[in-house]
Every structure is written in C-alpha cells, then in structure tokens.
Specification:
The complex is a heterodimer of chains A (270) and B (473). Chain A is of the alpha/beta class and 270 residues long. Chain A is built from nine helices and twelve strands. Chain A has a six-stranded mixed sheet, sandwiched between helices. Chain A has a four-stranded antiparallel sheet with strand order 2-1-4-5. In chain A, strands 7-8 form a two-stranded antiparallel sheet. Chain A is globular and about 60 Å long. Chain B is of the alpha/beta class. Helices cover 24% and strands 34% of the residues of chain B. In chain B, a hairpin with a 2-residue loop joins strand 1 and strand 2. In chain B, helix 1 packs antiparallel against helix 2 and helix 2 runs antiparallel to helix 8. Chain B is globular. The chains are: A alpha/beta (270), B alpha/beta (473).
Amino acid sequence: MTDGTGTQPIFVVEDLHVSVEDKPILKGVDLVVNQGEVHALMGPNGSGKSTLANAIMGHPRYKVTQGRILLRGQDVRKLTPDQRARDGLFLAFQYPISIPGVVMGNFLRSAMKARRGEDLPVREFRKLLDETLDLLKIDPEFVRRYVNDGFSGGEKKRAEVLQMALLKPDLAILDETDSGLDIDALKTVAEGINALRGPELSVLLITHYQRILNYVKPDIVHVLYDGRIVKTGGPELAGELEKQGYDWIIKEFAPEAVGALAASGAGGEA
Amino acid sequence: MVTKVQDVAGDRNYKFGWNDPEFKAVNKPQKGLSEKVVAGISDMKGEPAWMRDFRLKAYGHWLERPMPTGFWGGNIQNYSLDFNDIYYYVKPVAEQGKTWDDIPEEIKRTFDKLGIPEAERKFLSGVEAQYDSEVVYHNIREDLEKLGVIFTDMDSALRDYPDLVREYFGKIIPPNDNKFASLNSAVWSGGSFIYVPKGVKVPMPLQAYFRINTESMGQFERTMIIADEGSDIHYVEGCTAPTYSSDSLHSAVVEIIVKKGAHVRYTTIQNWSDNVFNLVTKRMAVYGEAVGEWIDGNLGSKLTMKYPSTYLLEPGAHGEILSLAMAGPGQHQDAGGKCIHAAPYTTSVINSKSVSKGGGRTSYRGQIKVYPGAKGVKSTVRCDALLLDEESRADTYPLMEIDEQDVTIGHEASVSKLGEEQLFYLMSRGMTEAESAKMIVNGFVEPIVKELPMEYAVELNRLIELQMEGSVG
C-alpha cells in the first residue's frame, strides 16, 4: 500500500475497535503513518488516545474486537507486547511505572539485548548511553537508580525518551510525553525527539495540548474524538485547535456532545 | 554419575537433588529415637559425662513437650512426618580430613560438585563441610589461627576446648526452649564452633556447608559462635540435599554470643530439597554497642520454621534481621525473626521479603518485645510479600509486646501481586514475560541480596532465577 508519493507506510491502523472491560472505547480508527513521518494525535480527555497507544502495544486489558494493526505490512494483533517491541514498536508511557530494585542501567542493557537480539559489548553500550544521556541532559548518576523509582515527572519522561533513543524503534508512540513538564524540560524532551526523528523513526505523538507541537513540528495532525479520528490535517490544524479549542470540531462531528464536553471542562486549551 | 530421582518430590527447578549411591556409613545407622539411641550417640563420640546427661535430659523434654500446633510457627501436625522413620546418626567417615584429599572420593566429589573447595581457594577465610551427621573437612587460614581464631566442628571443640564449650553450650538456647531445640540437644552432631578473640577482625567469611546424602536422614548440627569484645566475623552457611520421595529432617540449634563492641553477621542460604523439614532455632545474645545480624535466605525445604532472634542485652546493642523466603509448589516457608529489647537504647531492624508462586506459601512471623525500663528503644519492622499467581499465599503474623512508653516502633507490611503494569512495562521493552517476571522478582529481593558479598549475591540471584524458571508464561 502506498499513498502515491512513493513513501511506504511503515504503520497502518485499519478500522480498529478496542474495548476495555467490555466497554467499547475505540470505534473504528484508521491511521496511515509513512516512513519518517511525525503524526500528532490530539483530542480531549476520554477520547481514547491512551487506549489507542496501549492497544497498539498489546496491553492485555485492551481487547481489539475488530480491525488490524500493521507494522511494515505485518499484522501484530496476535503478537505479545515483547514481540511487538522486538519488531520495532515502542510506547513512551504517560505514567511510567516504577520497578524498585531493578537498576536502570541493567534494565536498559537487557532491553537493548532483547531488541537487538544480541548483547552489545559493554564499552559500546557505555558510549551510546553516555551520548544519549548527554543529548537528553540526564545526569549519568541516573543509570544507577531503580527504574522510575522516585523519579520526578520530568525525569520519568526523559527516561522514556532515553529508552526510545537506545531501542531505536521503527514507530514510537509518545503518550502525553509533554504533560506535567515545565517549559525547560519540555524543550529538552522535544530536542531529543527532533534529534531522533528521521527516516529511521516514525512517531505518533499523542497530546492533549498544542504546546509541544511548537517544538516538534508534526507532518500530520489528527483529532480523536469518541473513539474515532474525526479530523485530519496539516500542522496548521494544531494552530486552529490552540485558538479555538476542540468545540468547533466536535460541533461539526457530534453537535449534541458540545454542551456535555464544555460542562466537563475537557475541551479547549490549557 | 550420581544422578537419581531428581524430580520426585518437587516441581521446583532444583539442581542439587542428586545423591551419592556409593556412599556407605561408617556406623550401622538405625531408624527411630529412644534413650538408647541418644546414649549411643554420646558413647560413640566418647563424650564427657555432663554432655551425656545433657542429651538424656533434653530427650526427656522432647518426650514431654507436645508438637507445636501452629500457635507459633507452621502446623507440623498437618504433615505426615514420622519421627520414627528418621536416621538420627549417620557417621560418614572414620576420621575427619585435614585436606580434601584425605576424605573418601565419593564425598569429595559431592563437595566438588557443590563448588566448595573452589570457593575456599577464592574468597573464604575458612571452610567446614558436613556430610550427614559429621563434619568431614574443616580448614582455616593459618594467619587467622595464629591470631587465636578457632574454627572447628562442635564435636572437636567439645574435646579440645571443653571449658569454653561448657560455659556457653545450651545457655542461649536451653534444651527445653522448644520441642525441636530439645530434639537437637538430645541428638546433636557436627556443626561449627567459632571463637574470635578480642579485637580480631576476620577479613573474609568463614563458611560451613551442610549436605544431607542419606534418605530419611535427620541432620542435627549444633553451631556456636563466640565473638569476643571488639571482634568481627561473618559466617555463611549453605545447605542442600538429594530429592527423595520420603521425608528428611533438619533441625539445628545455633547459639551466638556477641560481646561488647563486636560484630557478627550470620548468613544462611538454605536450599534444601523439597522433602526436607527444616525446623531450626537460632539466637544471638548481643551485648553493649555490639551488632548482631542475621541474613536469612530460605529457598528450599518442604516446611521451614525458623525465626532467628537477637536478644539485645545491654545499651547500644543493635540487631538486624534480613529475611528472604521463596516458596514454590508444595513449600511453606514460615520464617521471620525476633528482636528482644532487654536493655535501654537498643535498636533493631527487621526487613523481610517473601515470594510465593505455584501454590507455595510464605508466612512472616515476627516478634518485637520491649521490656519495662528499656527506654529509648528503636525498632523498625518491614515485611513485603510478593505473590506471583492466584494459587499462592502469603501471611503476616507480627507480634508486638511493648512494655515501655519511651520507645519508637515502626511497622509496615505489604502484600502485592506481580503487577500487570510492571510486566507490561518491561515486556513493552522487548523482554519476554518470563524475563520480565524474573527481573521484577530480582528487584523485589534486591535490598536483601545487595547485603551479601558479591559471590553469594550472584549465587542467590542464580538460585532465584532457577526457581523462577517455568513459573510464568
């Protein structure tokens, strides 16, 4: 499948339906990411953004009831999360969980071994790690700490980007990697993403706010609402959302929902 | 070579379950226990009259005391352990070896396979190896011997240092302390005796290795450590046994005296096969400004009941218990610790971690006791249990008896299930479910493992990984 411009779609989601505890959350999501593209997926709270991220990665609680998820043309639905990761999918978590007692450095080395299928020589690993720590302005002492244990919000998000950099996925989903960051931390994370994006890395950047898109320029912007992508456009769409909030799109798509959304305070910009 | 009945009793991935079929005892072992058997052990060993009497009195206590019913400890009556179907004394060699070459080939081969001579060469100050009822080999670095450090087996100590032994034997754990202390006091054989003179610091650990070979064996070693003022010693014990379909019994008594300003660390890596009942009494008396530490790792056995205790007897004494238990299918690890604050300004820490899987059961059982007048006592207890599946079980039985107002006592307990979110996180990085579970468990026990010398930490991690194999995914 091509989009006519000659680039290959690296990642395709087709008519994806996902339920959590038998409650349908995604109701037919379609998405085509070509190699090297950065897609921003925006939407109000509760629209299903994190569900899409978790379902793509294969979280056992998110049941795909219909549709396909294709990485380089291969359907990954039957694969376990670790197989998907080894095949080149990556999820930067919105809330990375802490794993006390597991030292970051050992964890990173094991993950890289799994992804590459072989152990990296210690010296090479060290060099790569130091360079990446430097890029993301992370204190080298960090690798001695336990995975996400006692990390500040900013440290957690940088640790996710660090893992993305080391594991070199084909498609990275960044689930609200910008949330909870102050402006300096946001810039650092954005610089990290920009340094890594390119033909080798396609990105699905999930965000509630337009803010990070000032630093990471998306090729395409989607708006997810009530389990469907209701609007797709260029980077200018993000700008419109910043000015006008989500209401105008929702009005177009589901006029009856606007009042409820406004009442919940979930619409608009921060 | 010597592999047999590897997987009769347990589903645990146990690598030490082979036995040595060529082994023949020097005596003619008979099953069952009687006054005659008790006296016979003493006579064979040529003991002084006081020890013979001590044994016989203890045997009387054994007969009088009822079986524990689970008020303190696991309920032994739930099991079909038949005390008449146990060998109480199996003498492995006519004479103890001074070098590894002195001991019979098949026994040496066993300890080679367990890596003991190699460990001795690499990182130990001294080694002792017990096979069934007797110590077959012991050795201590010459420079330490010259400094007056005694490291020998209990039987030799009774012969060579009779006054020292008599002064302390059965004083920390009296023969009527509990049913199994009575049993050990009646039929004890082997075990370590250590004396560290004033101010002497032993640089590397002394290690004892206890190996059961005979089917239906009862092993009853008796260990005593006397750390004189300002001395420092780290003692490590390891133990394994062949896997048999019939029950074996291990019931040790360990008495430790930590004199003023001394430091004793006692590390156990218990990895008995799944047909061994492990019913052990361990206690330290800790004096002024001294530190007594137990690092107690329990991976093996069918039922373990073991609560290493520290009695803090003078101001400034500090006790620390790090307890680690792993229970797999058919196993019950009933472990924990006790800290008895009998003097003001004494402090203690208990940190317990347990992992249950495949229907295994762990219990933390602990006691903190503060006597009236023991002002300024500080004690912290923390116990965390991790369950790897729905069939497994973990319980916490903390007992607090605080008879003084001016104290600071902290207690925290948690039971958690192997987290779906933690697993998903690690798996999303490419590690398989089994690798991820291992990593989480290793992380969970890390605070205890990191206290061990590197070689033992590596060994313990390896054992945990073996035990984890096949448990998930």
